[in-house]
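Form P-L/3: holo structure prediction, ligand flavin mononucleotide.
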Amino acid sequence: MKQDLTKLLPIQFPIIQAPMLGVTSPGMVAAVSNEGGLGSLPIGGLSPDAARTLIKATKQLTRKPFAVNLFAHEISSVPRDILQKMWSFLVEFAKSKGYQLDSPSLPEFKFYNHRHQVDMLLEEDIKHVSFTFGNLDNESIKKLHAAGVSLMGTATCLQEAQILESSGIDFIIAQGIEAGGHRGSFLDGELPRIGLFSLLSNILQKCKIPVIAAGGIHHSQSIRAAMELGASGVQIGTPFINSVESQAIPSYKKRLEEATGTDTKLTCAFSGRWARGIINEFMQEVELSGLDIPPYPYQNTLTASLRKMAQAKDDHTMTNLWSGQSLPLQETRSCKDIFLRLLY
Ligand SMILES: Cc1cc2nc3c(=O)[nH]c(=O)nc-3n(C[C@H](O)[C@H](O)[C@H](O)COP(=O)(O)O)c2cc1C
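OUTPUT (holo model):
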């Protein structure tokens, strides 16, 4: 058995609220941290200024520790004709659904990754940083460690966990295939699709650093099961999506209440990275188009304005509905309520 997270981090319960970009609000982070868990604020892909505003808003709501979550992806270049074909398809598809995308020419591509955010995190005195989509570069690891920051990296197979461990990361977040949202996978080749229990056992056998279990954990029994297998703690996302503090639109919350695990699947349609969400028309039409889907973050930028317009109209058919395989069993409640129920 590895050490419990409560002995390793300044928290009362070994439960981390998963960072969920687009869903997590400062209020969600603060509610979980205030109850003795570790809230996580997602800032993946945001400009340092936008991220700092969210950090400051969270600090207004809690004096307890919280984690900040980064995207550690590299940015490749993509042939323009692949981008143009996808964009032309999206413009036409949007039109057929009553949405007007601004222009026939491509949107501006402006990307941020963790390298743009690390100095701001140090200025804001953040002490816990989690990340996904890759590993931090050595310089960032050194800077953050020198400031006493604990680092938690996401792995979806043993090889990724070993890469994180050998570069000095402090905790591994083992993300099983059940998990909602983006896969943290970062190695070339076939996407690892390993269920949480097998993944946990693989990693616990070979790695020495503490492991946090993520994917499909939604009640006290599943928390205990993961910890019984040797996890030091758990990271939980989907059960918080239909909370009062969530930024999810009402029709997304409703779909979560109606759906079951078989209504979710992995797709690249929204962002160009594999992610699990509830099946909807946008996902199906982009996949059926037969077009090459540009990799993250390009596809994410191409689909951003349409998703934003759909959200403004509470249209669940045209935006991403990230969800894990263990869907919420209850109606909308406060994060405090959801967190307290996880304990018993
Ligand atoms: C809506 C949503 C958004 C997510 N966004 C992020 C993110 O920004 N950063 C991250 O590290 N993980 C993200 N994840 C993945 C979670 O960290 C975690 O792996 C997952 O929620 C665990 O599975 P569960 O949803 O079944 O609890 C997201 C998950 C969901 C459901």
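COMMENT: The pocket of flavin mononucleotide is lined by residues 18-21, 23, 42, 44, 69, 132, 154, 175, 178-182, 214-217, 235-238, 241, 322-324, 326 (CB under 6 Å).
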